[in-house]
Amino acid sequence: MRGWIGSAGALAKCGLAVGALALGLAGFGSVAEAAQCGTSAAGFDTWKRQFAAEAQQRGIGSRGIQALMGTQYAYGTIKADRGQHSFKLSLDQFMAKRGAATIAAQGRSKKAQNAQLFAAIEQRYGVPAGPLIAIWGMETAFGNYMGNQNTLSAVATLAYDCRRPEFFQPHLMAALQLVDRGSLTASQRGAMHGEVGHTQFLPANIIRYGVDGNGDGRVDLNDRADALASTANFLRGHGWRPGAGYQPGQPNYAAIQGWNAASVYQQTIAIVGRQIDGG
């Protein structure tokens, strides 16, 4: 199943605008200066202590700091980060590998089964069911596989790793904020790059775009309604215009590009979403 669900979204999502990660973390750049990145597990514990000191200065409490210090270097995350090749496939190859036809077929059933939920989401955010269901299917096979990697260890490892620390350090700071709030636990598990929930949100995007979709007063991306509403809110935040098209060249395609920077992924979401919506 993992061959087609793709929590590979995080790698391509590194193309998201830096502004979407700021989230009020003013002065965060000094963290990168104080905490030196590394390319192996050897310096990880030292780096954690350096990062923890900076995190405390930025208001992270004891719960978040304790969770950070409990993280372990995630070898599986590094292996996954270095080994993602599907985005280099042709569109047809990518769609076949990700099971696009299966996602479309099952997606039409999901749309019918959850008609009231998708109608409410579209009324509030202007985003139709098709692209939301396509993302849901692509990311976690409709919630059937949301990952088994420790989220904080994954994000901390990538924040420490020299490849892209400037991208993942704000996500780690956001994750620690979520731990302080009680919205994320030290034992939370998700995808290899630290994404969580039905549609695989990175921590900073949970803070920025996470919404309560089921009316229980909390944001839980492991809840289907919350995850789908949050995904719609993300797309709206990236310029989605109600009623406009979302195929390549149409106004809302740019919002899909905001979700994932890989062209084959973007095109697949647009195609599968159209199939689900009946176009």
Automatic annotation (TrEMBL):
One of its GO terms (molecular function) is peptidoglycan lytic transglycosylase activity. Residues 44-246 form the Transglycosylase SLT domain. Signal peptide: none annotated. Pfam families: SLT_2 (PF13406). Its EC number is 4.2.2.-. Keywords: Lyase. GO terms for biological process: peptidoglycan catabolic process. This is Membrane-bound lytic murein transglycosylase B. It comes from Methyloligella halotolerans.
